[in-house]
Design brief:
By secondary structure, the protein is mostly beta strands. It has one domain: 2,3-Dihydroxybiphenyl 1,2-Dioxygenase, domain 1. Helix content is about 10%, strand content about 40%. A hairpin with a 2-residue loop joins β11 and β12. The longest helix has 12 residues. The protein is globular, with a radius of gyration of 16 Å.
Length: about 210
Amino acid sequence: MTAGAALRLDHLVVTAATVAEGAERVAAALGVRPGPGGRHAAMGTHNLLLSLGPACYLEVIAVDPDAPDPGRARWFDLDRHSGAPALTNWVAACDDLDAALEHAPPGIGVPMDLARGDLRWRMAVPRDGCLPLDGAAPGLIAWRGRGAASILPDTGLRLTGLTVGHPRIDALLEDWPALRGLAQVVFSRGSVGLSAEIATLGGRRLLT
């Protein structure tokens, strides 16, 4: 594996019917409300953001009701979202997106050049909007310059661990060995779902 294909945890993704509902879910779980994010014109979505430390953050994302149809499947399976807000996805960062995709299993996505405000990045986006293994496989991002985590106000929250569960998680790790090197991420063969342990001023909390 090349150095550019090495991975690190970048952010967690809470999907919701609306960003307001997602913010309420996060505030109830962690005691802190996400702050302003922005809009993604290419995807027809918008988000709110919350720092989880100097190199990691949480994103609440939903379909932007004021945006036109993007003419493609929205990321994180948002076109089919239903039910309560939940932690459904996670994203790993790399220095070289093309190199990382060479070592990733099929279905992680096609590189797209994206921007929001002063932020610039490339991200692999699945054509159908769905990451493999029900979101157990991470999205892949490569920031061009500073990343979102570096510009968010420090809330005192710190991610202490992310557990990624799926009945076929062993197959994912076999197909994508680079995932084993991710700090703070534990892979569990069992029920589908993500669970993040986060240190808050009120103690350790779980977000699912």
